[in-house]
Amino acid sequence: MELIPIIRPTLPPLEKIVEAFQESYESGSVTLGRVVSRFERLARAYTETRHAVAVSSCTSGLILAYAAMGLSEGAEVILPSFTFAATVQAVLWNRLTPVYVDCLPGTMAIDPGEVLKAVSPRTAAICPVTIFGLPPDFDELERISEKHGIPLVGDSAQGLGARYKGRPTGGFGFCEVFSLSPTKVITAIEGGLIITNDGDLAKKLVAMRDYGKGPDGEDMVFNGLSARMSELHAAVGMLSLENAKNLVDSRMRLIAKYREVAAHFPGCRVQEFPEDRSSSGNYFTLLIGHNARANRDAVRTKLKANNIESKRYFHPPVHCQTAFKGLPHRIVGDLPNTLAASGESLALPLFSHMTEGQLGRVCEALETVLTSKSFVT
Question: Which strand (E) or helix (H) includes residue 80?
Answer without folding.
Answer: strand 76-80
